[in-house]
Every structure is written in C-alpha cells, then in structure tokens.
Amino acid sequence: MIKLDFSKFSIQDTVRHGFIFLCTVILVFSIFYPRVEATDTILLNAKVYTVNPIQPWASAIAIQDGQITYVGDEQGARELIDSNTQAVNLKGRMILPGFHDIHVHPVHSGVSYQQCSLFDIQGVKKLLDKIKECALTNPEDEWIVGGGWTVPDFAPSGLPDKKLLDEIVPDRPVSLKSSDGHSLWVNSKALELAGITATTPDP
To answer: How many helices (H) and strands (E) does the chain have?
Structure first.
C-alpha cells in the first residue's frame, strides 16, 4: 500500500494540482460529452426518408439557421429543444430530400453578365433603374439586351409588363431574359420589329 505524506506539499502545490486535475476533468467531459446546443426548429412525428443506406428512415429533424443539423429519432431531437425552439408535429407526414435539377449554362451566363445584367437586383424600381442606366451608358447600341430578372419580382402574376420598358426606353428595342432563361421581357419596339401583335397566333 502506498502512503502519501501530504506534509511535503505546500498549500500552493495542493491548489495548483487540484486546479490541473479539475481542468483535466472538464476537458475530458467536453470531448466525450459535448454540450448540446438548442436549435431553431424541430420537426417531430415525421416519416423522413434520408436516402442514406445506413439510416434510411428517421422520425425527426432539427434545423438551425436554415441548415439541417440533426436527423434521427425524436428522443435525440427533443434534447435540442429550449424555450425558443419551434416544435412542429408533422403527424406522420413524409419528408423527402429536395429534387434538384443541377445544371448550368456557363457561356450563356457569362454573356448575360457582360450585357445589361439584372442578376442579384430585387424589386421592380431597382430593375428599371438598372435598365435605364444600361440604355443611357450605351447610346450606340441598337438593342438593349441582357437578363437576370426573376419571376417573384412581378408577383402575383409573375409576368413583367412591356409598358414598364416603354416608359424608360421608348425609342430602341429591349430584350431581357429571365434568370432561368425561359422567359423574355421585351418592350413595344422589340415586338414591332419582330412583327408580333395582339392577333399573332400563339405558337
């Protein structure tokens, strides 16, 4: 049996060794028992298909700052709840990962940025201000072309009106593609040159 003679230790040594021991215990607990952070939103009582062969199904999801931070059972999710957490009971509804069409058009996008670029501009007034600026700074261009506007800017219909362009660029044709490349916003001058009228058949 080992006997320790504490008389050889000063009070300072005892305090120092005790402090080192306490720090060691705290460090071990912080590594093996990390502090659980509460989250913004918890989705409970769900049928979550994860597309993960190791864990294909789950019943709860935690979301923090717009990002999924937990996918698992409800017991684990409830540990993330505090007084500020919004808990939503999905009553057995299914959750699936988003279906995304991931593709890009680098050449088309690059050309659009070199023209009258409306990307990252929100609001009709700001869009019109930018288009007017493009027309004023390029007086030699026969057409004002570009793109980048988005459908939500023209809610609820989602369709921009040619009259908006006519008011700021009445003398030259304007042709602006939407950000997804599937819609075209033009003014009356562009329609006139294209021979399109109200009686033109829908192709």
So the answer is: 6, 11
Q: Report mean pLDDT in 10-residue bins for the chain, 203 residues.
A: 52 62 63 65 96 94 93 93 94 89 79 91 95 96 95 89 96 94 94 94 85
- Its pTM stands at 0.53
Ranges of CATH 2.30.40.10 domains, the chain: 41-95
In single-letter form, the type of residue at position 77 comes to A
41-95 homologous superfamily: Urease, subunit C, domain 1 (2.30.40.10)
Side chain identity, residue 11: I
DSSP state of 38: P
Beta bridge partners of 144: 174
Beta bridge partners of 145: 175
Structure token digits, residue 75: 């017991």
Fold of 106-194: Diaminopimelate Epimerase; Chain A, domain 1 (3.10.310)
Cα atoms in the 13 Å half-sphere on the side-chain side of 140: 0
Residue 103 main-chain phi, psi, to 5 deg: -155, 160
Residue recorded with tokens 């075209």: 184
